[in-house]
Structure formats: structure tokens, C-alpha cells
Amino acid sequence: MAHATIKGQRKGLEVLNDDGKEYHKLYDTVIVEHKGDKVTLNTGGWKTNHTKNCMNDFLKRFGFGVFQKDFKWYVKGPNETFSFDEDKVSFTLGVL
Questions:
Q1: Sequence ranges of the domains in the chain
Q2: Residues with Cβ < 8 Å from 94, sequence gap 6 or more?
Q3: What one-character-per-residue DSSP string does 17-82 give?
Q4: What's the DSSP call for residue 14?
Q5: For 27-78, what is each residue's pLDDT tens digit?
Q6: Which are the contacts of 91, defined by CB distance < 8 A and separation ≥ 6?
Q7: Which terminus of the chain has fewer CB atoms gathered within 10 Å of its CB, N or C?
């Protein structure tokens, strides 16, 4: 399984590509998995500004973002916003 590793611009972030699947690994946690139009976000229990910023660096190219309001996390797409209550959430780009 060949893959390329790219050092992310944020501390502790690596971007990995493997057979058409893109991973963003923050320290020991894969916080973003992306293939085609499918995305999975995973905080690994670390709901920090740093995690959120690293996720947003990836998501902004698709018009999506993660934000926090009243201690709850949300994913905002071009047409819809949904809560991100668990450590992991999956969605399809272009559907929201």
C-alpha cells in the first residue's frame, strides 16, 4: 500500500494520501478521512480549537466548516448545519 506523507502547516498535523483516500492525522488521531464525496471527521475525544482549526483547513475548500456554540460542535455546509455531538461524524459532500 503506497502512500505519500505531507507535513501539514499546523503543529502535529500530517496529510497522508493512500490509493485515492486522503487522511489528516493530528498527532496520533486521524481527524479527517476523505475519499470521493465522503468525509469522516473524528476528534478522538480532543474537542480543542487546534483540532477544529485543522479540520477547517481541510473543509474550507468544499465550503464546509466546523464551529462551536454553547459548548456544542456543529458542521456547517453550504445549505445546512448539523450537530457534531459524538467524537466522529460522517457525511457526503454536496448533500448538505
A1: 3-92
A2: 37
A3: EETTEEEEEETTEEEEEEETTEEEEE-TT---HHHHHHHHHHHGGGT-EEEEETTEEEEE-SS-EE
A4: E
A5: 999 999 999 999 999 999 999 999 999 999 999 999 999 999 998 999 999 9
A6: 38, 39, 75, 77, 82
A7: N
| 39's grid cell | 468525509
Cell 496520533, located at residue: 28
All cell numbers assigned to 70: 454553547
Indicate if the alpha-carbon torsion angle 75, 19, 13, 60 is positive or negative.
Answer: negative
Hey, how many other C-beta atoms are within 10 angstroms of the C-beta on 55?
24
